[in-house]
Specification:
5 helices
């Protein structure tokens, strides 16, 4: 599980510019975020991953871990879908604001996933230490 979130999507969303450089940055950042998230979500959900360890400490975390796993997979697909969209509309100044709003939304969803994943691991750790 990652310990810090990247703000690159939010940065691009806050300063949208209908320039070639901005579009290239958006495409590259989505590629990087998609790849990183794919790896992190798979690692969290792996049989020896953070969620499996949390569930082994506290089986009541099974449902939150399952939801986080599903949401993580959806987030990865959302990033990939947005990247495909960007490939189709890059350079279209009329789409810049819409893409920026999507980047902001994805950045928020990414932060939410990371927060929930951390919470699952933290809850398991605290419950294990507390003997609950």
């Amino acid at each position: 599980m990652r310990t810090a979130t990247a703000s690159s999507l939010a940065d691009l969303a806050e300063d949208p510019r209908p320039t070639a450089d901005w579009w290239v940055s958006v495409a590259r950042t989505l590629d990087e975020v998609g790849e990183r998230l794919s790896i992190e979500v798979a690692a969290d959900a792996a049989p020896a991953g953070a969620f499996a360890e949390a569930i082994s400490r506290d089986p009541s975390l099974s449902n939150p871990a399952s939801r986080a796993t599903r949401d993580g997979a959806r987030l990865v697909e959302r990033v990939r879908g947005l990247r495909r969209t960007v490939a189709g509309v890059a350079g279209d100044g009329t789409k810049t604001s819409w893409i920026a709003s999507q980047l902001s939304s994805v950045a928020h969803a990414e932060r939410s996933y990371v927060r929930r994943a951390r919470s699952i691991v933290w809850d398991a750790h605290c419950r294990d230490l507390g003997g609950e």
